[in-house]
Amino acid sequence: MVLQNHNVSKPLPPDAEDQPAVKGPEDSRLPRAIREASRRRRARANAGSAAAKYALEQAMRRSRTRSSPQQLRLEMPRAQPPVSDTELVEPDQKPRPKPVPIPRETVTLPRFLERPDYKDIPTQNIVAIEPGLVETPIDYLRDGLEVEGPKMLHTLNAMKPVPLESVLPSEVSVEIKDAASDLPTHMFAVFGRQPFAKGAPKVNKQKVTLYPVHDIIFASHCAHLPKLRTSKPQKENVKLPVVPVCLPSPQTFPILSSYLYTKRVDILLSALLPAPPASLSGPLGLTSVDETIPDDFFKAQKIAYAHQVSKTFTARALLQNAMVINGVWRNVCALGVFDDRLWSAMDFAWDACLTALAFATGNPKAMIATPVEREIAAAVL
User: Which intervals of the chain are annotated as region Disordered (predicted)?
Assistant: First the structure.
């Protein structure tokens, strides 16, 4: 397994004498926009500000949730209600179905998505890919990737994920139709953990899916991902090394991967919510610690949206969306992604989905509990 545990110690940076020589621009395989990321957007805060901002937001979050319930319990109909029985009547009368109460079950969900402690991106992971980025702050590098990422993703979209049915190879050959495209560097073999079962072990085929990726995208965003094997694919013969990646929710990996390439919050919300309103993509570009937009604005949007979708989708369908959000969140924690917009979008989607579930199950007070929230609900509904 290639992922590190959250509690492992931070990898030590390599010694200066062990670092490879810095390449010139003509030797680099990265796009120019990425290599020159440190020259652009100098007005932004330095790399250390990301950790400080994340720590501040986490502290504010914990102070708000300390007195709040940490779990949400909802009563909802079971997935498959039993067939109603028939009551026997006189021969000249039609049989009447007996009123059978719909069986219900209690679903318990975490009230908030917990955030792990912030962790820096290991410098040696970036240097192993591009030695010329040794002194480039991570924020500036991500600025360049935000420009080039959609172009990289366009290349990957022409390559469909490949499910494996046999032994995991060490490398795979791929065909790239566009010779001018940014070639992927690795193939992630994504799989999930096998559930523990008592008794003798059973021979089960592990489902593994191959996804082509660019190393610089994941190395610059995933603090828990170890240093990837060096890969320099040639356009004539593209062979990608295979990297096994065990994730809590392998089926939601494409959602997270797409966001890391595009940084499009609107596309992310489209994947997380049953019917994302277009008006949410703008404000969510800001972090929740930004004081220029009041919290009441987001609460009003959340309540209005949740009430709308609760009338369109069943509680069971909304629960499925909640599981998608939960899966993306678990993958984010496992890989160590600390992106402000990503976390803001997940927080909003989770809160909105739980509020919609509360409406759909006839218990809106479970999510609209404070006097301020009740006033907002009365104004927008």
Answer: 1-103
The letter for the amino acid at 148 is: E
Judging by DSSP bridges, how do beta strands 208-213 and 71-77 pair with one another?
Answer: unpaired
> 96 - beta bridge partners?
87
Q: What is the pLDDT of residues 286-323, one digit of tens each?
A: 444 344 445 666 788 888 899 999 999 999 999 999 99
Tokens at 185, concatenated: 């560097």
What are the residues facing 212 on neighbouring strands?
Answer: 187
d(C-alpha 93, C-alpha 335), whole Å: 66
Which pTM value belongs to this model? 0.77
36 three-state secondary structure: coil
Give CA–CA dist 299/31, Å, rounded. Answer: 41
Mind listing the pLDDT tens digit for each residue in 168-207? 888 888 877 666 578 899 999 999 987 655 555 555 677 8
Structure tokens at 99: 């009123």
Three-class secondary structure assignment of 50-73: HHHHHHHHHHHHHHHHCCCCCEEE
Segment 26-62, tens digit of pLDDT: 455 566 555 555 444 433 444 445 566 666 566 555 5
Of 278, 351, 355, nearest to 315 by C-alpha is 355
Give me 111's structure tokens.
Answer: 């009230």
What are the two backbone dihedrals, phi and then psi, of residue 305, each rounded to the nearest 5 degrees?
-65, -45
CA distances from 229 to 218, 292, 373 (A): 13, 44, 51
Strand-pair partners of 209: 163, 190
Helices (H) and strands (E) in the chain, counts: 11, 9
DSSP secondary structure of 136-160: S-HHHHHHHHHHHHHHHHHHHHTS-
Are 122 and 227 within 8 A, CB to CB?
yes
The CA-CA-CA angle for residues 276, 280, 283, to 5°, reads 160
Structure tokens at 241: 């090394």
Question: Hey, is 193 helix, strand or coil?
Answer: coil
Using an 8 Å Cβ cutoff, are 358 and 368 in contact? yes
With b for 16 or more beta-carbon neighbours within 10 A and e for fewer, the 37-70 pattern comes to bbeeeeeeeebeebeebbeebbeebeeeeeeeee
Q: Tell me, what's the pLDDT at 222?
A: 97
Give the torsion through C-alpha atoms of 28, 31, 33, 39, to 10 deg. Answer: -10
